Amino acid sequence: LLMVVKEAYNTALVTGATGFVGSHLVHRLIAERWRVHVITRPNSNLQQLQSVQDNIVVHIHDGTTEGLFAI
After folding, report:
1. What is the mean pLDDT of residues 3-17?
2. Quick one: pLDDT at residue 52?
3. What is the pLDDT of residue 69?
4. In angstroms, rounded to a whole number, what is the distance separating the alpha carbons of residues 19 and 21?
5. Whole-angstrom Cα distance, residue 20 to residue 18?
6. What number is the average pLDDT over the span 6-11?
7. pTM of the predicted model, to two decimals?
8. Which of 17, 29, 41, 55 gets the most CB atoms within 10 Å of its CB?
9. Hey, is 12 helix, strand or coil?
10. Dihedrals phi, psi of 3, to nearest 5 degrees
C-alpha cells in the first residue's frame, strides 16, 4: 500500500516495506528523492531496509487501533 501526500517534497507511507516488493519500492522511492515513512510490526526484520535506514522514518505498529493513533 502506498499513500502519497503532496508537499514541497513527495512523501510516501509504505506498508509491507520489510517484504520483497515493499523493500524494493522503498529503495526506488529513496533513489527518486522521496521522503519515505514505513509502518512495521514490532517483530519485523528490517534487514532488507538496512542500506536506507538513515533515509527513512520507521513507525512501529502493534496492530491495535490505539497503536495506530499513536503513530
Report:
1. 80
2. 96
3. 82
4. 6
5. 7
6. 73
7. 0.81
8. 17
9. strand
10. -115, 130
- Distance, in Å, from the CA atom of 13 to the CA atom of 22, rounded to the nearest integer, reads 11
Cα–Cα nearest to 41, from 14, 55, 24, 61: 61
pLDDT at residue 8, as a whole number: 59
Alpha-carbon dihedral 17, 26, 3, 34, rounded to 10 degrees: 150
CA-based Rg of the chain, rounded to a whole angstrom? 12
Q: In this structure, what DSSP letter does residue 17 have?
A: T
Burial class of residue 26, CB neighbours in 10 A (0-12, 13-18, 19+) = buried
Q: Count of CB atoms within 10 A of residue 46's CB? A: 14
Length of the chain, in residues: 71
**Segment 14-39 mean pLDDT:** 96
Chain centre to alpha carbon of residue 23? 9
Q: Tell me, what's the pLDDT at 1?
A: 64
